Amino acid sequence: MLKMAPAVLLDHYIGISRLLAGQLEFHSAIRAVAIEISQIIPHDHLDVCIIMHGGKYHTAYETGLETAWGNYPPALVSQSPIRALLWGEEPFMLTEDALVDERFNFEGAFIQPAFEQGLRSRIHLPLKVEGDIIGALSCSSHQPHFYTMEDVDNARSIADLLSAYFFALRAADQAQKSAIVEAETRVREEALRLGALNLTEALERERQRIGMDLHDQTLADLTRLARWLERLAGERVVSGDELEGLSRSLQQSMQDLRQIIEEAKPSVLQLFGFSQAVENHLDRSIRDSGAKLQQQLIDETNGIIDQLDETVSIALFRITQEAINNVIRHARANRIVVCLREHGGGISIEVLDDGFGLKTRRRVGGGINNMKTRARLISAKFSVGPNQDNKGTRVIVHLPLATVPNREL
Ligand SMILES: Nc1ncnc2c1ncn2[C@@H]1O[C@H](COP(=O)(O)OP(=O)(O)O)[C@@H](O)[C@H]1O
Ligand SMILES: [Mg+2]
Questions:
Q1: SS3 category, 17
Q2: Which of 54, 97, 200, 333 has a CA positioned 20 to 30 A from the CA of residue 152?
Q3: Residue 185 lies in a domain
Q4: Is residue 407's pLDDT more than 70?
């Protein structure tokens, strides 16, 4: 289009290189050089697109006009009007009118910005680094029949200048993104490691508690009963009353022992299923606390909850148990509802109360942290927050479908 002396052209190319230096971001880089490029190739719209994510997508950075090309990244390379160029099938593309050029108007082509903005004459050159196409430079004009082969040659030189720079920007961008992902993963793993450590400590404390219960209660009872028996053995006549008392004490001791075992291992879970175990826990803990609390248990899991792995169902049960304990201990609620559901591609358990709700500056207890860790160890989502209308508290655990066994999709 413009005839230029080689020395003037060279000046502009040097100008472009100078303007690129120090630009650390795609948008600012393209905007910095747009005016200088327009001295060589006048245009109404200029964009650089960069191929990303293993070659499937590309992102456009534009200047001059804002179009949907720049507004909805990333887009599929296969729908780009210049896909032939991005796939290396064409060394360049020059059109006198993109709106009627068949190469740009294939089925599914993302060409409507050219229609919306009336971008008719267009030239496209690949950005190449060591033979690989990393994107394209595109210049467009409202006027049809505007560009010539000479513009293509000039655009090629500009594309060669830009490509190394944009390659470096892309590499820096990808390195930064993967560094962020890596850092996030590290933080998550560290949190899980700490959580698991806390849980192990909690289990250790639990073992000690069981040991203490067995020692202080069961062993003490058995010792007392043994003495009682010894005493009876020394007597010639043993009354029925004495024996009955002894029998009652024995039964009480067995009951206490059962209680200790039950707390250590929720056998009702295996024997009667999840829902029954939850109901049992609700009944017993409400009764023991003496609180006036209405309870409701809704089970809409169609039995799927009882097909889970034992470790998974014990973890879910422990979470539910702690949520219920928290309602009883802290919420001062009138009502507690436990819902077991199969939906959203998995199983969800909700524990709702209509009590005081979580205080913003509450004590950080081990219970909620343990619930979180238990959920994460079985890849379930956990959240605790206000219930509807900020009345009370809601705990939700959601176990995704992938971990729900024997389920037909
Ligand atoms: N359902 C609830 N209603 C009101 N407050 C709650 C509820 N659940 C937990 N909390 C608050 O969160 C705190 C932390 O709970 P948790 O981690 O289980 O520790 P702990 O029960 O040992 O105090 C509790 O001390 C309490 O203040
Ligand atoms: Mg608690």
A1: helix
A2: 54
A3: no
A4: no
Amino acid identity, residue 377?
A: L
Asked whether residue 331 is assigned to any structural domain, the reply reads yes
Of all protein residues, whose CA lies closest to atom 11 belonging to ligand 1?
358
pLDDT tens digits for 114-155? 999 999 999 999 999 988 999 999 999 999 999 999 999 999
Asked whether residue 297 falls in the same domain as residue 166, the answer is: no
Tokens 């994460």 label which residue? Answer: 376
Choosing from 156, 176, 196, the residue where a domain stops is: 176
Residues 351-380: tens digit of each pLDDT: 999 999 988 776 666 789 889 988 988 889
171 with 280, same domain: the answer is no
367 lines ligand 1 (CB under 6 A): yes
Dihedral sign (CA 42, 164, 14, 29)? positive
Residues 170, 275 within the same domain: no
Confidence of residue 402 (pLDDT cuts 50, 70, 90): low
- The domain boundary, picked from 127, 147, 176, lies at 176
How much distance in Å is there from the Cα of 370 to the middle of ligand 2? Answer: 9
CATH number at residue 151: 3.30.450.40
Q: What is the pTM of this model?
A: 0.52
Per-residue pLDDT tens digits for 67-87:
989 877 789 999 999 999 999
Would the CB of 328 count as within 6 Å of ligand 1?
no
Distance CA 261, CA 277 (A): 15
The DSSP letter of residue 305 is: G
Q: Is the CB of 326 under 6 A from ligand 1?
A: yes
Query: Is the shortest distance between the CB of 327 and ligand 1 below 6 Å?
Result: yes
Signed CA dihedral, 237, 239, 244, 250: sign only: negative
CB of 292 within 6 A of ligand 1: the answer is no
352: domain range?
A: 268-409
Q: Does 281 share its domain with 404?
A: yes
Q: What is the CA radius of gyration of the chain?
A: 36
Instruction: Return the pLDDT at 237.
Output: 85
Residue 186 included in any domain: no
Number of domains in the chain: 2
Nearest CA among 281, 314, 278, 319 for reference residue 299: 278
